[in-house]
């Protein structure tokens, strides 16, 4: 069984460096919640396959109603989540606009959150956000 990659979508402000995460009703992993009993794999986990983010990023743009190029993959980030269905890759992409696309988030009943607003998320999602935050801000 092939498990499709999931995506974390962020907006990083160009001058302030403020990082916000797109949070949908299903959580921060777009566009389908991770199953119960999921666990984040260690950073040194070495899967047998790798995923290229282009198709997943384009699918996100279409889902959000954004133009091609509005979402860009973030290089060198890939996390793996151990789920009952198998290992799920989680890729990272960033909105290319100066401001977050608030209207697109609203259409999907989502919002942009800071990492400090992640308490309501699952432990796996909070750990993913922490890993992304460290990756993006170095």
Provide an overview of this structure:
The protein is of the alpha+beta class and 138 residues long. It contains 3 helices and 7 strands, in the order ββββαββαβα. Strands 1, 2, 3, 4, 5, 6 and 7 form a 7-stranded mixed beta sheet that branches. The longest helix is centred in the C-terminal third of the chain and has 15 residues, at 123-137. The chain is globular, with a radius of gyration of 14 Å.
Helix-strand layout with pairing:
Layout: E1 6-12, E2 19-23, E3 29-30, E4 39-40, H1 54-64, E5 71-83, E6 86-95, H2 102-107, E7 111-113, H3 123-137
Parallel strand pairs: 1-6
Antiparallel strand pairs: 1-2, 1-3, 2-7, 4-5, 5-6
Write a brief structural summary:
The protein has 138 residues and is α+β, with helices and mostly antiparallel strands. Helix content is 23%, strand content 30%.
């Amino acid at each position: 069984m092939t498990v499709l990659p999931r995506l974390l979508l962020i907006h990083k402000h160009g001058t302030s460096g403020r990082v916000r995460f797109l949070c949908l009703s299903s959580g921060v992993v777009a566009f389908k919640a991770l199953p119960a009993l999921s666990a984040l794999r260690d950073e040194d986990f070495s899967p047998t396959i790798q995923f290229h983010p282009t198709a997943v990023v384009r699918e996100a743009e279409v889902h959000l109603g954004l133009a091609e190029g509005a979402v860009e993959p973030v290089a060198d980030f890939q996390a793996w989540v151990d789920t009952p269905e198998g290992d799920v890759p989680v890729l990272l992409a960033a909105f290319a606009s100066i401001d977050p696309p608030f209207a697109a988030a609203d259409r999907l009943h989502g919002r942009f959150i800071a990492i400090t607003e992640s308490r309501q998320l699952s432990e796996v999602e909070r750990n993913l956000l922490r890993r992304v935050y460290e990756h993006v801000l170095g």
